[in-house]
From TrEMBL:
PANTHER family assigned to the protein according to its UniProt record, in alphabetical order: 4-HYDROXYTHREONINE-4-PHOSPHATE DEHYDROGENASE, D-THREONATE 4-PHOSPHATE DEHYDROGENASE
Top-rank taxon: Bacteria
Keywords of this entry: Cobalt, Cytoplasm, Magnesium, Metal-binding, NAD, NADP, Oxidoreductase, Pyridoxine biosynthesis, Zinc
UniProt organism field: Roseovarius pelagicus
Protein name in the entry: 4-hydroxythreonine-4-phosphate dehydrogenase
Organism lineage: Bacteria, Pseudomonadati, Pseudomonadota, Alphaproteobacteria, Rhodobacterales
Subcellular location as annotated: Cytoplasm
Known EC number: 1.1.1.262
GO MF, any single term: 4-hydroxythreonine-4-phosphate dehydrogenase activity
Function: Catalyzes the NAD(P)-dependent oxidation of 4-(phosphooxy)-L-threonine (HTP) into 2-amino-3-oxo-4-(phosphooxy)butyric acid which spontaneously decarboxylates to form 3-amino-2-oxopropyl phosphate (AHAP).
Family according to the record: Belongs to the PdxA family.
Positions annotated to bind a divalent metal cation: 161, 206, 261
């Protein structure tokens, strides 16, 4: 009997890195349990059988014999560990092709293998800071939220890749309000949590300790939380970040919103380094990604750990099911 599930699209990412290897290992681990296909050059896939497909609908049957690959041919030689500038345009267009497939309904979600941002900038003048911003551009969305998620913890940084001494300049009431609203909506739509509980970290040690260690909690964070509580959001905080992440504390919330990058990412990477998944909330489609980079230093050695890619595919499948419930 034909499988009615729509497959997940994986954009190949930087082919000189570990993306194609991870896709192959994910297929070896998941088989037909979670249907997916790689958008990439079949010649870049190492070790193991490949099943060439002409469209996304063929992926489910093709997975019985090999990793389904929707051919996206690259110009120029592949040298593992060293990005080829001639590949940059194809890396970018593979992402755009994945977005087209998921927006058309041919794919249920997009899982993106890691890109090498400098290679894209050098080879194609890539104008976006990273994957997330490019996906938001393709979707016509002005504000999205990065979540790192695993079975043990979900975290959202309100500010992301900026120097620590710029956080107080960038952090604002509108930014925090948008972050919390998008997180709340994403937990309902994508994770099937009807009444999300969100813990919110303070910025300063001990959440400012009543203004003795900083006033951002009093002047900025608390007013935002109070206003959103009147809209029905279940928000705890601002909390002292050093007591938010032990097991008993984590049991009391569904996601934690933090004020800066490391405040959010250190806990999840300590708790579940190999299985953390990068999720973009606020897009009109589902996007997940392994929580690591291209690993150029180990490309081609066959030692890349596929755990985060496998978890990214599993999470994409669960999110798709939640949206369709």
């Amino acid at each position: 009997m034909a499988d009615a599930r729509r497959p997940i699209a994986i954009s190949c990412g930087e082919p000189a890195g570990i993306g194609p290897e991870l896709a192959q290992k994910a297929w070896a681990a998941l088989g037909t349990d979670i249907p997916f296909f790689l958008i990439g050059d079949p010649a870049h896939v190492p070790h193991g059988p490949v099943a060439i497909i002409a469209d996304a609908a063929e992926a489910i049957d093709a997975a019985r014999s090999g990793l389904p690959v929707l051919p996206h041919i690259f110009d120029g030689l592949l040298s593992l560990g060293t990005p080829n500038p001639r590949h940059a345009e194809s890396v970018i267009s593979a992402i755009a092709r994945g977005v087209d497939l998921v927006q058309s309904g041919a794919a249920s979600a997009l899982c993106t293998a890691p890109i090498h941002k400098k290679a894209l900038q050098d080879g194609a003048g890539f104008a976006h800071p990273g994957h997330t911003e490019y996906l938001a551009h393709l979707a016509g969305v002005t504000r999205v939220v990065m979540m790192l998620a695993s079975d043990q913890l979900r975290v959202v940084p309100a500010t992301i890749h900026i120097p620590l001494n710029n956080v107080t300049t960038v952090l604002s009431a509108p930014l925090l309000t948008q972050t919390l609203r998008i997180t709340h909506a994403g937990l309902i739509r994508d994770f099937g949590i009807p009444a999300p509980r969100i813990a919110v970290a303070g910025l300063n040690p001990h959440a400012g300790e009543g203004g003795k260690m900083g006033t951002e909690e009093i002047a900025l964070i608390t007013p935002v939380l109070d206003a959103l509580r009147t809209e029905g959001l279940d928000l705890k905080g601002p909390l002292s970040a050093d007591t938010m992440f032990h097991a008993a504390a984590r049991a009391g919330y569904d996601a934690a919103v933090c004020m800066y990058h490391d405040q959010a990412l250190i806990p999840i990477k300590t708790l579940d380094f190999d299985r953390g998944v990068n999720v973009t909330l606020g897009l009109p489609f589902i996007r997940t990604s392994p929580d690591h980079g291209t690993a150029l230093d180990i490309a081609g050695q066959g030692v890349a750990n596929p755990s985060s890619m496998i978890e990214a595919l599993k999470m994409a499948a669960r999110m798709s099911a939640a949206r369709n419930t």
